[in-house]
TrEMBL record, chain A:
Transmembrane segments: 300-322
Name recorded for this polypeptide: Uncharacterized protein
Species this chain originates from: Mariniphaga sediminis
Keywords recorded for this protein, A-Z: Membrane, Signal, Transmembrane, Transmembrane helix
PANTHER family with a match to the protein in the record: DISSIMILATORY SULFITE REDUCTASE SIRA (PTHR35038)
Signal peptide: 1-17
Recorded superkingdom: Bacteria
Automatic annotation (TrEMBL), chain B:
Domain of life, per lineage: Bacteria
Subcellular location: Cell membrane
InterPro entries: Cyt_b561_bac/Ni-Hgenase, Di-haem_cyt_TM, Hydrogenase_cytochrome
Name of the protein in its database record: Cytochrome B
Regions that span the bilayer: 12-33, 53-74, 125-147, 159-185
GO annotation terms (biological process): respiratory electron transport chain
SUPFAM superfamilies: Transmembrane di-heme cytochromes (SSF81342)
Gene Ontology terms for molecular function: electron transfer activity; heme binding
Keyword Disulfide bond belongs to the record: no
PANTHER family per the UniProt record, alphabetical: CYTOCHROME YDHU-RELATED (PTHR30485:SF1), NI/FE-HYDROGENASE 1 B-TYPE CYTOCHROME SUBUNIT (PTHR30485)
Pfam families reported for this sequence: Ni_hydr_CYTB (PF01292)
Domain Cytochrome b561 bacterial/Ni-hydrogenase as annotated: residue spans: 10-200
GO cellular component assignments: plasma membrane
Length: 327, 205
């Protein structure tokens, strides 16, 4: 019996470790456990001085953190008070602390050579040209799109383009498909995304396979992810910008993958069956893992098409001449 | 049904099918090239126009294909597409021989058109390949590309959509080459326009 219980426990631990729950919680700093005791829970206890009783209350859902997501985020090693006021260490918290200005990304990352690779200053520069800044100014902080608690740099770290797309588009949709959040910064009606994009052929597929920012930003080759979100009138409606041999997607959605492939292969094309499906466009490459009409091309097929075409036309011309001569 | 040495080989339904098919295939080739080589030449269609035209022509040619199959099942036209294996390579060789040599010497075609034999062996088997292999392949792959979500995500680390698209464009290209040769061979009648007139009025000869 004891042995069975032991086996069962081992199994449970294995399953949880597999889902990352055990890993996730262990990567949260010890100092944060006191905060998460309430902020990762549906309820909290407080001593009510009026009633002179310890009371259990429901936590405001907006203040409940998802510890799994938190552990997977880029800031998972941070202490809560690295960004929030140290006064939060006192419980019950002082209500006025809610009004304290929050730290912004640039407060830590700006001008710091440690983060040079991430180009935060360039990101800020581009963001300040964007419609978000133009319309809402400083009120539109990085956190409107990038949750400091959960943010993952998928465009750099994920090898799955679909994941990069979904993660990025969910940032946009968190406001543009959510009237409550949209109203935080705008008095306008939230645009109807499906109707407004009805001109786009295969709309559902585009939404799943490319990011909103592919068309809605001014793509900068020198920046990993363009942050200059354009006014809707300036968004590209030109299919050929993506659907051509010189596809813009090379410099945007597939940029990190391209850079990594080049690093891994030292700039050489792999000479394998798979390399047959690699497509040259300028000096960038599309891999065989996805297909874009007009952009993906198979080089050896181009040669095959040309040879067969000229052989057929040549044969017809020679045959015609021969018939004329022998007439 | 012979009248004054003329044969009524192309009934009305077949001519309608052929006309729709011809125009549809031309639209598909032009729009297909425009999509594949988009942004590469001023002679090509705009991407969005090419997409719309390719989709419409694709649906039209696919629906029309069923008219062809149905017509061949319901009328005697189907017999012209029946494969006869014995002596096949000999017959094909003989026809090739005629095209590469006999035709220049003024020889008579080895397999002249008759009510029983509308196509010469080479013509017959190229039509069979095009109509019963490449066209269905184009319709199936085209339909899959129209609804790409039904295609397998990856096949040996290659995108399923990529493989389908490659199969579609190779088949489309071979139909294009067939069309060039088809048009040229059609001009080898008594006069260059003779066969073109036949497919419009139905009468051969």
């Amino acid at each position: 019996m004891k042995c069975k219980i032991h086996t069962l426990l081992c199994l449970i631990v294995t399953v949880f470790a597999g889902t990352g729950i055990v890993n996730g919680q262990s990567s949260v700093p010890e100092e944060n456990r006191a905060c998460l005791k309430c902020h990762a829970s549906q309820t909290f206890s407080i001593y009510n001085e009026w009633t002179e009783r310890e009371e259990k209350r429901l936590m405001n859902p907006l203040y409940i953190l998802d510890t799994v997501q938190l552990a997977g985020g880029v800031h998972h090693t941070f202490n809560c008070i690295d960004c929030h006021s140290y006064e939060y260490e006192t419980y019950p918290h002082n209500g006025e602390l809610k009004l304290e200005p929050m730290m912004t990304c640039i407060d830590c990352h700006g001008g710091d050579p440690t983060f040079a690779e991430w180009q935060f200053d360039r990101v800020e520069e581009e963001f300040k040209k964007s419609v978000h800044f133009e319309t809402h100014g400083e009120q539109f902080s990085c956190s409107k799109c990038h949750s400091q608690h959960y943010y993952r740099a998928t465009a750099r770290t994920s090898s799955d383009v679909k994941e990069i797309v979904e993660y990025s588009n969910n940032m946009c949709l968190s406001c543009h498909d959510n009237m409550t959040k949209y109203q935080l910064v705008s008095e306008h009606e939230n645009p109807q995304l499906i109707e407004i994009h009805s001109w786009l052929p295969n709309q559902a597929l585009h939404f799943r396979r490319v990011r909103c920012i592919e068309c809605h930003t001014d793509v900068q080759d020198s920046l990993m992810v363009s942050h200059n979100i354009l006014r809707k009138e300036h968004a590209t409606k030109n299919c050929v910008e993506c659907h051509s041999a010189n596809s813009m997607l090379q410099a945007s959605l597939y940029k990190y993958q391209n850079l990594r492939t080049r690093t891994e292969t030292g700039g050489n094309n792999q000479k394998s069956f798979l390399s047959l499906f690699k497509v040259n466009a300028s000096d960038e490459e599309f891999t065989s893992e996805y297909y874009v009409i007009g952009a993906s091309r198979v080089p050896f097929l181009n040669v095959f098409f040309a040879v067969v075409f000229f052989a057929a036309v040549g044969g017809i011309v020679i045959h015609t001449i021969m018939r004329m001569i022998k007439k | 049904m012979g009248t004054g040495g003329k044969l009524y080989l192309y009934p009305l339904w077949l001519r309608i099918w052929h006309a729709i098919n011809a125009l549809g295939i031309l639209a598909l080739i032009f729009s297909g090239i425009s999509l594949h080589y988009s942004g590469r030449g001023f002679l090509l269609l705009k991407f969005e126009t090419a997409i719309a035209l390719h989709n419409m022509a694709g649906v039209l040619v696919s629906a029309n294909y069923f008219l062809f199959v149905l017509g061949n099942i319901m009328t005697k036209n189907g017999k012209y597409y029946r494969v006869k294996v014995p002596g096949l390579s000999k017959r094909i060789k003989k026809q090739i021989q005629y095209y590469v040599s006999g035709i220049f010497k003024g020889e008579e075609p080895p397999y002249p058109v008759s009510e029983k034999r509308k196509f010469n062996p080479l013509q017959k088997y190229s039509y069979i390949f095009i109509m019963y292999f490449f066209l269905p392949l184009l319709i199936v792959t085209g339909f899959a590309l129209f609804f790409p979500e039904i295609i397998m995500e990856q096949v040996f680390r290659v995108s399923g959509v990529m493989l389908t698209a490659v199969l579609h464009s190779v088949s489309g290209f071979l139909v294009f080459i067939f069309l060039l040769i088809h048009l040229y061979v059609a001009s080898l009648g008594k006069s260059p326009s003779d066969n073109f007139r036949s497919i419009l009025n139905g009468w051969h000869g």
